[in-house]
Design a protein that fits this description.
The structure holds two protein chains of two kinds. Chain A is an all-alpha fold. Chain A folds into two domains: about 10-45; about 60-115. Chain A is built from three helices and no strands. Chain A has helices spanning about 15-40, 60-85, 90-115. The longest helix of chain A is centred in the first third of the chain and has 30 residues, at about 15-40. Chain A is flat and about 55 Å long. By secondary structure, chain B is mostly helical. Chain B is built from eleven helices and no strands. The chains are: A mainly alpha, B mainly alpha. At the A-B interface, helix 1, helix 2 and helix 3 of A face helix 1, helix 3, helix 4, helix 5 and helix 8 of B.
């Protein structure tokens, strides 16, 4: 397939991305309803009686860096996908899948190789 | 190109969110009524959930990110033709990306298992992408219409192996039980994420490998939602059975074995499809 000139905006792409954002908004709405509903139940109670949210379990520096890298990729790549979806290219699909796999696999493989000899760190109930 | 409706997406994601919020309560109730069914796979405790509602407090950011990712993944997966939040042309790519957020934000999983499991699931889905020549989840399901003989699960041996590896990886990704001393909102959302992750992975398996909403026989295709529900439930039963075999799913060797097996399935599937002329 010979690449042709890019269209200004791919038909339907903007509405798809709008629908995706609306799905995220729905999730935010539900989280807000849960938080707000429980706040409504507990209103008027003595503030001193409220229990603060327990801190998250501490993670080591390499684990934090790894999670940060994965999260960054998970946020950056969809933005790139959205931009490219708005301006379509004939080779979008295969290139994105291969690029995504390479970006996801290389650091993951490196992490597994580095940590492969370590303790399990996975307690089960 | 597929279209999307923001209003429909908002309504559908709210409905999916309600379902995911109710799911851990249903599991906890089942746990009390039939404890032998869920031995070794508990993620929620009903008295702890009820007691947690009395504790005020906020939600951790990691749990909130995991919740957003999980609900959005569930909302963009089709339950029937046209019954989904957003019909995305790059749907599988979005699902994997959002699953990374959902799994990374969950406090129930260890990072090494997270990385291994996500890579395995991605590689297991790759032969499906090649065979259906589309990243759109609805297209993947539509390509399997016409009865059980057209389901990707039995189209070629490497996809069958990929499906088995997927199930093992999903069972290995089963979250640990949540802490019971968290405040109410944190406990509710955290329980929903931990209980909902296996359910969402089971639904994804149904769409990708088991024909989605298409029945095993064409004359039953009209009951789309029932087909999807029954198949997802059947996959959940398989996941619970696998999870109870902790000697399989807790083995440290799976961290590298599962991605390797999935890679073999992906490469083998591509070679098989090339040799049989089924793809490209």
């Amino acid at each position: 397939m010979t690449p042709g000139p890019f269209e200004a905006i791919a038909p339907g792409a903007a509405s798809q991305l709008g629908a995706l954002l609306a799905s995220v908004a729905g999730a935010v709405l539900m989280a807000g309803l849960v938080r707000g509903g429980l706040w409504w139940m507990h209103r008027g109670r003595d503030a001193a009686a409220s229990s603060p949210t327990a801190p998250a379990p501490a993670r080591s520096a390499p684990v934090r860096r790894f999670l940060g890298a994965i999260l960054l990729l998970a946020l950056v790549l969809p933005t790139a996908v959205a931009v490219r979806q708005l301006w379509p290219h004939p080779d979008l699909g295969p290139r994105l899948v291969i690029t995504w796999l390479v970006i996801l696999l290389l650091p993951t493989a490196a992490w597994l190789l580095i940590r492969g000899g370590g303790p399990s760190g996975r307690p089960r109930s | 190109m597929s279209e999307g409706s923001p209003i429909r997406a908002l309504i559908w994601s709210v409905a999916v969110g309600l379902g995911l919020l109710a799911w851990p309560w249903l599991l906890a109730w089942l746990q009390r009524r039939r404890p032998e069914w869920l031995t070794g796979v508990q993620v929620v405790d009903l008295p702890a959930l009820r007691a947690g509602l009395d504790r005020p407090g906020s939600v951790r950011s990691g749990t909130l990110v995991a919740w957003l990712g999980l609900v959005t993944v569930a909302a963009v997966m089709p339950a029937a033709r046209g019954l989904l939040g957003a019909d995305l042309d790059a749907g599988l790519l979005w699902v994997i990306t959002l699953a990374v957020l959902a799994v990374s934000g969950s406090a129930g999983l260890v990072p090494r298992w997270t990385a291994s499991g996500l890579m395995t699931l991605t590689l297991c889905i790759l032969p499906i992408v090649v065979r259906s020549a589309s990243l759109n989840l609805a297209d993947v399901a539509i390509a399997q219409q016409g009865g059980a003989g057209n389901w990707f699960l039995i189209r070629d041996p490497f996809i069958l192996m990929a499906a088995l590896v997927y199930l093992l990886a999903a069972a290995a990704l089963w979250p640990r039980p949540s802490t019971t001393d968290a405040p109410g909102a944190q406990l509710v959302l955290d329980a929903a994420v931990r209980a909902g992750l296996p359910l969402v992975l089971a639904h994804l398996f149904t769409v990708v490998f088991l024909g989605g909403w298409w029945a095993f026989a064409p004359f039953l295709d009209g009951a789309a939602l029932v087909n999807t529900g029954l198949k997802t439930l059947a996959v959940m039963v398989v996941l619970v059975a696998l999870r109870r075999r902790s000697d399989w799913t807790d083995s440290e060797h799976l961290i590298w074995l599962l991605p390797l097996a999935a890679l073999i399935c992906a490469v083998g599937g591509a070679i098989w499809m090339t040799l049989t002329g089924a793809a490209w």
